[in-house]
């Protein structure tokens, strides 16, 4: 055990028990996000200082049992066994106490002190469930505290119980499940054999491991490899499990599970009372409509469509304000600073690049806000069930909808969310397809081009691109499931949590985390790449000679003859024309221009000029960089004044950028491989081979489909 003033607490429990909400209530803003060693599973850690004591909380992935199958379950079990926290706070859903206590009893067998947090007690009481926590604690030998995470209720009492355990003032774990004389007779000799290796027994509690061996837990047998009498223990465990199976007529793991539930029912008989029970709850009434066989899928699609419509409508003004701010900032710096490379770097490189990305923050915030509400209210699980039948028909698992929905926010956590899928083929397929969902980084690209070329229908155009991504994912799933990932998806079994009113604090916290990640990328990765792009678009320096300027003027005179003598407006037009041509030549003679012209033939079948070709290539690093690149390519070197055009207007006025080209470019950005961060996460989750496959597959598909659409579109237009 660690020092009494520095306490390590594992926060564990079933999924949908309100564990993370409780974690937020305990730790507030004093938390950090990281990964568990060796895996990409995200972990939350937070610190609470109370008096001279420092409580270090680790929020573990939600699990139902310590018999581990998915990565989430393995992480939780291994953390508790290997890290040996001082206390486990088991967060339980008070409205479904018996099922939650099943995991609590397994924690108790690990001989690590446990405090039970009877969470959601307000919901339980609303359903007429009355829990006597003192009686329950006495029955199980585990301190029990009533909590309501969103309201912060019970947090101080919870920490008081932890203190009493640390100070030795509470006997914890004095009771254990009695599995009945027949099973106990088999457990006792196994325990003694395991305890025969003192070093091994210090790491793995003998009773817990003996129970796991009778349950035929493969991980338990693997852990035995470090025991000096491993072979003897394995033989004894297999013989005992076989005897139990014959004696009871059921597998040993089923018998043990029944005994646990019998023990739980005995403990809750006196401590839990149902004083009233609604025949038909609000959740059931809503689900009659939301989960209707005919309406579920259309409602799901309608909800997503509504979210995007509201996102575009509400974000229009704050986006315009941000664009005006960055335009004002550029103009002010242009007027204040001397005309030199530093001003160009600041105005064209930093503001032109990063400012373009930050202008889309309002849309990102609003989209994340609605997705967070869907998650907190309990609709995400319904979305999985609503799409399960259809997804199964094409070879996808119903639970794949969770990562895919998260993919609309960011591919990195979406790919990580696939770890909840137990079947490796289901998991690989989900990871491969998740990047087809347009993430928050692709959104600015789609919005920029839709606003520039489809101003009357920009929301519908972006929704169309999102829909195309979903359709491509489904078609790809159908093909991959019948070729490189053959096999039937596993059945989808999952509980539907009750509907809960989302808390403003919880929703805002989710929005802040995801938005901050977006802003942080703009201030780091996007800034660095924007500066690099500015360098390669600025150097080598080009300045037209007097003879060349005269040639530009002659071209202007030939194309725009003046018939009525001198004209100040005409001279101004001439000056602007010469300047525009010079800027264009400077771009084309820069490193970026030469690179763009070099790769342009590859992208010509897609209708892309050298500017779009260059932006498309930079998008392989991070999709937001495409906006930065276009911002620099369309504005670098141009003098900012009161009549200077915004990026959308500059793109719209480009004769090479037609609605067809804009749509094809949006399609290309949608399909090509995700950003470097997402690919790194993908490699950690499914390995290098499948990551390389994803890169190859989406690159070929992105180029081919974009070329087909452009060529057919060109034929139809002409």
Question: How would you explain this protein's 3D organization?
Answer:
With 718 residues, the protein is of the alpha/beta class. The chain has four domains: 6-166, P-loop containing nucleotide triphosphate hydrolases (Rossmann fold, 3-Layer(aba) Sandwich); 181-274, Helix Hairpins (Orthogonal Bundle), CATH 1.10.287; 317-540 and 590-718, no CATH class; 541-581, no CATH class. It has 33 helices and nine strands. Helix 14 packs antiparallel against helix 16 (361-377), helix 15 (341-358) packs across helix 29 (624-635) and helix 28 (610-618) packs antiparallel against helix 29.
Overall radius of gyration: 31 Å
* Strand ordering within the main sheet: 2-3-4-1-5-6-8
Q: Tell me the fraction of residues in β-strands, as a range.
A: 5-15%
Q: Which runs of at least 5 residues are low in confidence (pLDDT < 50)?
A: 32-40, 636-645
Q: How many helices in DSSP terms?
A: 33
Percent helix, as a range, is 55-70%
Task: Please outline the major beta sheet.
Answer: 7 strands, mixed
Alpha-carbon distance between the two ends: 77 Å
Number of domains: 4
The SS-based structural class is alpha/beta
Average pLDDT metric: 84
How many β strands by DSSP? 9
Shape: elongated
């Amino acid at each position: 055990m660690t020092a009494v003033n520095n306490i390590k607490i594992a926060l564990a429990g079933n999924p949908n028990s309100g564990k993370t909400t409780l974690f937020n209530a305990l730790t507030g803003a004093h938390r950090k996000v990281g990964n568990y060693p060796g895996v990409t599973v995200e972990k939350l850690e937070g610190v609470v200082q109370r008096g001279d004591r420092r409580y270090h909380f680790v929020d573990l992935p939600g699990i139902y049992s310590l018999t581990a199958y998915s990565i989430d379950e393995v992480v939780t079990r291994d953390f508790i066994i290997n890290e040996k926290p001082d206390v486990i706070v088991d967060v339980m859903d008070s409205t479904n106490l018996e099922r939650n206590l099943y995991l609590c009893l397994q924690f108790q067998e690990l001989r690590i002190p446990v405090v039970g947090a009877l969470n959601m007690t307000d919901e339980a009481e609303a359903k007429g469930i009355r829990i006597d926590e003192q009686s329950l604690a006495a029955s199980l030998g585990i301190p029990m505290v009533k909590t309501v995470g969103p309201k912060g209720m019970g947090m101080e009492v919870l920490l008081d119980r932890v203190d009493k355990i640390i100070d030795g003032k509470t006997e914890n774990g004095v009771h254990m499940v009695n599995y009945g004389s027949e099973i106990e007779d088999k457990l006792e000799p196994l325990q003694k054999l395991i305890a025969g290796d003192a070093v091994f027994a210090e790491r793995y509690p003998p009773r817990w491991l003996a129970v796991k061996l009778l349950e035929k837990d493969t991980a338990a047998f693997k852990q035995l490899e470090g025991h000096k009498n491993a072979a003897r223990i394995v033989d004894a465990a297999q013989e005992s499990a076989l005897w139990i199976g014959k004696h009871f007529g059921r597998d040993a793991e089923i018998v043990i599970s029944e005994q646990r539930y019998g023990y739980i029912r005995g403990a809750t008989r006196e401590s839990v009372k149902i004083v009233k029970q609604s025949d038909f709850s609000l959740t059931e009434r809503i689900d009659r409509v939301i989960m209707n066989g005919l309406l579920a899928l259309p409602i799901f699609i309608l909800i997503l469509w509504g979210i995007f419509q509201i996102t575009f409508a509400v974000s229009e003004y704050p986006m315009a304000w941000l664009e005006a701010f960055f335009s004002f900032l550029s103009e002010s710096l242009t007027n204040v600073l001397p005309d030199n490379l530093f001003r160009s770097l600041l105005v064209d490189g930093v503001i032109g690049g990063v400012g373009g990305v930050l202008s889309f923050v309002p849309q990102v915030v609003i989209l994340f806000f609605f997705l967070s509400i869907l998650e907190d209210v309990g609709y995400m699980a319904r979305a999985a069930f609503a799409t399960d039948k259809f997804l199964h028909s094409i070879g996808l698992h119903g639970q794949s909808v969770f990562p895919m929905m998260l993919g609309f926010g960011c591919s990195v956590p979406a790919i990580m969310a696939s770890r909840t899928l137990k079947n490796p083929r289901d998991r690989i397929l989900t990871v491969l397809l998740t990047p087809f969902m347009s993430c928050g980084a692709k959104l600015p690209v789609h919005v920029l081009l839709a606003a520039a070329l489809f101003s009357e229908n920009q929301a519908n155009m972006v929704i169309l691109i999102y829909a195309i991504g979903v359709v491509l994912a489904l078609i790809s799933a159908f093909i991959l499931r019948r070729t490189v990932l053959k096999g039937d998806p596993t059945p989808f079994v999952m509980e539907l949590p009750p509907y809960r009113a989302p808390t403003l604090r919880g929703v805002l916290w989710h929005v802040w985390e995801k938005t901050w990640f977006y802003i942080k990328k703009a201030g780091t990765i996007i800034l660095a790449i924007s500066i690099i792009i500015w360098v390669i678009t600025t150097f080598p320096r080009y300045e037209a000679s007097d003879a060349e300027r005269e040639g530009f003027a002659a071209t202007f005179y030939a194309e725009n003859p003046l018939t009525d003598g001198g004209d100040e407006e005409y001279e101004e037009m001439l000056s602007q024309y010469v300047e525009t041509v010079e800027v264009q030549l400077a771009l084309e003679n820069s490193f970026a221009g030469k690179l763009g012209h070099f790769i342009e033939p590859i992208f010509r079948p897609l209708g892309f000029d050298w500017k779009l070709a260059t932006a498309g290539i930079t998008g392989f690093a991070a999709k937001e960089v495409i906006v930065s690149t276009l911002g620099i390519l369309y504005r670098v070197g141009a003098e900012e004044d009161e009549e200077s055009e915004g990026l959308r207007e500059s793109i719209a006025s480009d004769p090479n950028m037609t609605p067809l080209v804009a749509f094809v470019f949006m399609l290309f950005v949608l399909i090509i491989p995700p950003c470097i961060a997402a690919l790194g996460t993908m490699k950690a989750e499914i390995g290098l081979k499948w990551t390389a496959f994803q890169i190859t597959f989406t690159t070929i598909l992105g180029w081919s489909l974009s070329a087909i659409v452009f060529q057919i579109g060109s034929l139809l237009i002409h």
